[in-house]
Specification:
The structure holds two protein chains of two kinds.
Chain A (H helix, E strand, L loop, with lengths): L5 E2 L18 H26 L13 H9 L6 E3 L5 H7 L3 H9 L32 H14 L6 E6 L6 H13 L3 E7 L2 E2 L2 E2 L20 E5 L3 H16 L5 E6 L18 H8 L3 H11 L6 H20 L19 H11 L4
Parallel strand pairs in A: 1-7, 2-3, 3-4, 4-8, 7-8
Antiparallel strand pairs in A: 5-6
Chain B lengths: L2 E3 H15 L3 E5 L15 H5 L4 E3 L4 H13 L3 E5 L10 H8 L2 H4 L9 E6 L14 H5 L5 E3 L4 H13 L4 E6 L7 E3 L13 E4 L4 E5 L3 H14 L4 E5 L2 E3 L3 H11 L2 E8 L4 H13 L8 E5 L9 H4 L3 H13 L1
Parallel strand pairs in B: 2-3, 2-4, 4-5, 5-7, 6-7, 10-11, 10-13, 13-14
Antiparallel strand pairs in B: 1-8, 6-12, 9-11
The chains are: A alpha/beta, B alpha/beta.
The complex binds thiamine diphosphate (TPP) and magnesium ion.
Thiamine diphosphate (TPP) binds next to strand 3 and strand 5 of chain A.
């Protein structure tokens, strides 16, 4: 495969290219599908919660499910994940509990991170799912450091860092790619090229023809994959993670995909893209495409029933977490430092006494 | 105990902590083979190897960002920024990532990185080799900011910073690197974070200062003695969280305070210290809290001597407070 080629496994007719099939067992295939359906159901519910004023904001990943679910499936015990805000699927696929995800969105005491951040900024130490921050691509140098630490300690693990096409223009991307090449570190840079950074088209983000071709400038291989093909994503990320674990260094993966919804609940995409363009991509819906394959294999009978089931699971998770009490006022002052210093203790006491 | 310079004490702290704890690593530009442009890391590369003494590419985002990831995955990185004037490319990594990791993850992840940076003027370095950026970092929730002024404090505070659980901006007054020498305890030596030092006791006025201004304050205090006034000099050493108890007790006793720093005046840390003093010592104050600072200009090359506060300027502020 040359750098410009786009790897696909799922053929338009719902069959697979046997030479590229990652050969996952049937229950795993079904699990990929169910997680994609779950992800979409989360989006739908979260957007509804935002519209009804129960949460402030949400970043959906509708249309990009194959990317985060396929990549997440390639992550193994001990690996690290440095995700962007749109990649809840990666954590979900790795075992980040739905209840925790929903709690984070609600920001009440059901949130393990105590309502500290807006929705989409999850983390879970137990699976090395690192805390998301909003500034684009800042997690990439952290992935480098975690990989370096693993190398120092002789751990054979890989680090997955995810980000968008816009992220490739940042200084942090450059720094992280360069450091990874120089120190030969096991970092897999998974770039979801959904063609837009909010309104900004990828053609205006870079003068290179592809994003993958930036990799050789850092001494890394760059590959392109069909980001709406969960098996192709699984294969490419799995291969790259495998090379990383084997000490063969990092990889830049460019997954070509499209976000079918708005950038966030605050965005109106009709301002910057046409309905025809969206419709064309809707025809390549990654969930429907994978469902067709599973039905052909006799693994799936009724996708509509599966999707309804996913919605019900999400509805129940929200119901269970929604009425959790709000986070206590005093928690505002905790976790700033390892111990609460005098000035924060004073500010806390003054707020709690009602005199502040 | 041998007499050593401040830079040697920094080097000693790094070597001692690296020998004690294999998870301590240093990283930065020219820190390995070269031993650092100021020689802070001299000898570490040979002794501890290239894996723990890391010569990085020239990129401050990469240095601090990588250190954050190293800390999250169990190492204790000490990142060197070659001059604090070049810390700004890493500002986002420091302010939004390193300082916030604990809070945003509710303690699941922490970034206990020490970022060392030579700071301040006095070496004819012009604007880009002389700035004092402490206020930016003190203003940032989640950071500890330290600035030692003696070799012994440099060694003990750096060791405490490395062992601590919070991210630390460790600013080293480069003007003092080789100009002050004193006996420094050998082997493990800790100075607690958050505790100030009374440099010189006195009864009539409290002069609060840090970094390379400490010797300036001492000279001013000496001249004041010759004029019959007794000046107490306090070096907080840890700028944030500040040892407010020490300052409060002193000012309540003396009734007068002057703050001296080389950073620009407006929103300099002196402004915060002055506010804290008036909030806490109001009824004891006999004069307005005074400030002697750098000017609100870029750091000038040719006029450096006039920009930096000196003992005369300090003494004038001391006299003004005493005669108020
Ligand atoms: C450093 C930084 N600048 C600006 C923003 C505001 N912003 C949020 S998302 C975004 C676009 C990111 O696009 P991309 O990297 O392609 O990811 P996508 O949202 O498409 O998944 C921008 C400009 C930000 N979060 N961080
Ligand atoms: Mg994008």
């Amino acid at each position: 495969m040359t750098d410009a080629e786009i790897l696909s496994v799922l053929r338009p007719d719902g069959t697979v290219d046997p030479s590229l099939d990652p050969g996952l067992p049937d229950p795993e295939l079904l699990s990929l599908y169910r997680h994609m359906a779950l992800l979409r159901a989360i989006d739908e519910k979260a957007v509804a919660l935002q519209r009804s004023g129960r949460i402030g904001f949400f970043v959906p990943s509708t249309g990009q499910e194959a990317c985060s679910i396929g990549a997440g499936h390639a992550v193994r015990e001990g690996d690290w994940i440095f995700p962007a805000y749109r990649d809840h699927g990666v954590g979900l696929m790795r075992g980040y509990p739905l209840a925790a995800l929903v709690g984070q969105i609600l920001g009440n005491t059901a949130d393990a991170t105590r309502g500290r951040q807006m929705p989409n900024h999850w983390c879970d130490r137990s699976i090395h799912l690192v805390s998301v921050s909003s500034p684009v691509a800042t997690q990439l140098p952290h992935a480098v450091g975690a990989a370096y630490a693993a190398k120092v300690r002789g751990e054979r693990i890989a680090v997955l860092a995810t980000f968008g096409d816009g992220g490739t223009s940042t200084g942090d991307f450059h720094a992280a790619m360069n450091f990874t090449g120089v120190f030969r570190l096991p970092v897999v840079f998974f770039c979801e090229n959904n063609r837009y950074a909010i309104s900004h088209r990828v053609e205006d983000q870079t003068a290179t023809r592809t994003l993958a071709e930036k990799a050789p400038a850092y001494g890394l291989p760059g590959v392109r994959v069909d980001g709406n093909d969960v098996l192709a994503v699984r294969k490419v990320v799995g291969d790259a993670m495998g090379r990383a674990r084997a000490g063969e260094g990092g990889t830049l993966i460019e997954a070509l995909t499209y976000r079918l919804g708005p950038h966030s609940t605050s965005d109106d995409p009709t301002v910057y893209r046409s309905e025809e363009e969206v419709a064309a991509w809707r025809g390549k819906d990654p969930i429907r495409r994978f469902a067709a394959f599973l039905m052909g294999r006799g693994l799936l009978e009724d996708p509509a029933a599966e999707e309804a089931g996913a919605k019900e699971i999400v509805r129940r998770a929200v119901e269970a977490a929604e009425d959790a009490p709000p986070v206590p006022l005093s928690s505002m002052f905790e976790d700033v430092y390892a111990e609460i210093p005098w000035h924060l203790a004073e500010q806390r006491d003054s707020l709690l006494s009602g005199k502040g | 105990m041998p007499e050593v310079t401040l830079i040697k004490a920094v080097n000693d702290a790094l070597a001692t902590e690296m020998a004690r704890d294999p998870s301590v690593c240093v990283l930065g530009e020219d820190v390995g083979r070269e031993g650092g442009v100021f020689r802070a890391t001299e000898g570490l590369f040979r002794r501890f190897g290239q894996e723990r003494v890391i010569d990085t590419p020239l990129n401050e985002v990469g240095i601090v960002g990588m250190a954050i990831g190293m800390a999250m995955n169990g190492l204790r990185p000490v990142a060197e920024i070659e001059f604090s004037d070049f810390i700004y490319p890493a500002f986002d990594q420091i302010v939004s990532e390193m300082a916030k990791m604990r809070y945003r993850s509710a303690g699941q992840f922490t970034a206990a990185v020490v970022v060392r940076a030579p700071s301040g003027g006095g070496i004819k370095g012009g604007h880009y080799h002389s700035q004092s950026p402490e206020a930016y970092f003190i203003h940032t929730a989640g950071l500890v900011v330290v600035m030692p002024s003696t070799p012994s404090d440099a060694k003990g505070l750096l060791a405490s910073a490395i062992r601590g659980e919070d991210p630390v901006i460790f600013l080293e007054p480069k003007a003092l690197y080789r100009t002050v020498k004193e006996e420094v305890p050998q082997g493990e030596h800790l100075v607690p974070i958050g505790k100030g030092r009374i440099v010189r006791p006195g009864d009539d006025l409290t002069l609060i200062t840090w970094g390379a201004m400490v010797p300036v304050a001492e000279k001013a205090a000496e001249s004041a003695t010759a004029e019959g006034a007794s000046v107490e000099v306090i070096d907080p050493r840890t700028l944030w969280p500040l040892d407010i108890g020490m300052i409060e007790a002193s000012v309540n006793r003396t009734g007068r305070a002057v703050i001296l720093h080389e950073a620009p005046r407006t929103c300099g840390f002196g402004a915060e210290v002055a506010a804290l003093i008036q909030e806490r010592c109001f009824l004891h104050l006999k004069s307005p809290v005074g400030r002697v600072t750098g000017f609100d200009t870029p750091f000038p090359y040719a006029l450096e001597k006039s920009y930096l506060p000196d003992p005369e300027r300090t003494l004038r502020a001391v006299r003004a407070a005493l005669e108020f």
